[in-house]
Fold this protein.
Amino acid sequence: MRVELDEERRAQLPPTWQRAFDWAEESLGGRVVAWEAQPRWRPACFFELEREGEILPLYWRGARGEWHRNTRPLEREMHVIEVFERNGISVPTRFGLCEDPPGLILSRIPGRFSLDTATDEAHRRKVLDEYLAQLARIHSIPIEEFEAIGYRRPESPEQSCLGETRGFERSYRATKTRPDPMIEFQLGWCHRNVPKDRPELSFVVCDAGQFMFDDEGLTGLLDFELAYIGDYAADLAALRTRDLTEPIGQLGDAMRRYSELSGREIDFGVIDYHTIRFALINPLSVAGMVTDPLPQANYVQYLAWYVCYGRVGLELMAASTAVELDPPSLPEERPSRRSVAHVHLTELLDPAQAGDDGERAYQLDRMQRTAVYLDRADRYGEALESDDLDDVATLLGRRPSTWQEADAALEELVLSSSPERDPEFIRYFHRRLSREEALLYPVLREQQGIAVPPLE
């Protein structure tokens, strides 16, 4: 909700936002007269700066995570936007980079996101066509322009196709505190199956499919923080994962249209690989937050990304290697003596009590989602844990007594096994994640039932 800011309301803002707006006024001139919080997993808001009698609609894009201190990714993104501007890409105007609190200040792109809000099919096709044309143009910008602002050229086609996975894997290993056999299996699969015949290099936006549009057409592209130099097919794969929560349309047709616009060959097998690899970025990036969350973390959101995108990757693995999956069934509900308390806590955390306070509603919502998940775990968790240990026994030849013992033994088995055992691991980890997804189901929101459709 947009809130006009007088002196009294400004003083009531959280200290981080007060510092943010102080910096904006000092650096850009003028006065912040209104703001609209964008409650999400990273600090962000829309705000209006009155300067020389005009109102500038701006956007504050905070660092990844909850007030993360590193501004380097945002600085790189700012330089990327500069390169895009020179090459005719529709991007927001840069207004500056703040160190404390960390944030990139951009012009607010008018319009809306997600093509399922298009006025009709003709409108959807027009906007998507305009986006694909912009993406093709990005992929044709000489990579030397990005090397000049600090991006590195991969040393081999294998490195190019692994893309940003290498950096996320390093971060995952640096913060890893306990065994994670599911991630280790998928990482190993991605390394073993990386395409080796993709020499062409392009600048890849990475988290593709993020753009705004209005009733007339495309208004701008956004979010280049994870960009790198690599295989252009990775961006087409990212459209498939974006489609899981923001429907784009028939993706096979979109891939073929990109081929017409760019003159590049489309290999659906390579796109399948990149889809599996890119889906794994979600579990890789949130694994540490799932095992050791910060107090302000949206825990269920992170866990949902871990579970749902891990499961999606396994399903595409199975489809591309002709492995037949065996989804588990949900056991009967068995409420404990504590179930009443879980329900009571869920009711106490109702976001509706926040009224028009969007930030407070977000905080209540993230806590309520956790309460619902714990209630489900109380009702189903013991039986699901037992079923999972039974499945582990089939792989190990013995039944571990705890999930901790199971994870340690499974990780050791995954790391020591040959690819011949891949079908067993695909089936097992799919069953495991499907069980966890069943516990999360009522609070998955846009991720409920997501699945990657075939391209043909």
Summary: The chain has three domains: 3-107, 109-178+188-284, 293-456.
